[in-house]
Known about the structure:
Blueprint: E1 2-8, E2 11-16, E3 26-34, H1 38-46, E4 57-65, E5 77-81, E6 89-93, E7 97-99, H2 106-109, H3 112-125
Antiparallel strand pairs: 1-2, 3-4, 3-6, 4-5, 5-7
Amino acid sequence: MKKVIYYGIRDIRVEEALEISPGKGEVKIKIKYCGICGSDLHEYLHGPFPESPFGHEACGEIVALGEDVKDFVVGERVCSVIPGSFAEFINCPVERVLKIPADMDWKRAAVVEPLSGAAYALERARIKGDETVLVAGCGTVGL
């Protein structure tokens, strides 16, 4: 399979990588889309960004199940949050996988992870419908 490998600042390469079977409690996902996060861009331009590893917000279809996986089936559409998702396939622990509706567009599914951060911030702020909010220093999520 092909996978994007991070070698250093401004040095990423698409290379062949071993395709591994999912381990216990993991599902294997055929990646359809993987978002390019602001942290990915930061890592590419300035170096490692450990809080948010390179290629971590993806969506795709489950193609294999590891041992003891019960709540997912092959063919299900999912999104995931796992580093290394700039690849054709990724094995992901089930606790980092979320089922998505059959009619959800893949491009929208790829941004579920950053959307969840924005939704959480709004919930914590307890904003009411008639209030005005200033978003200062917003990145792509704030837009």
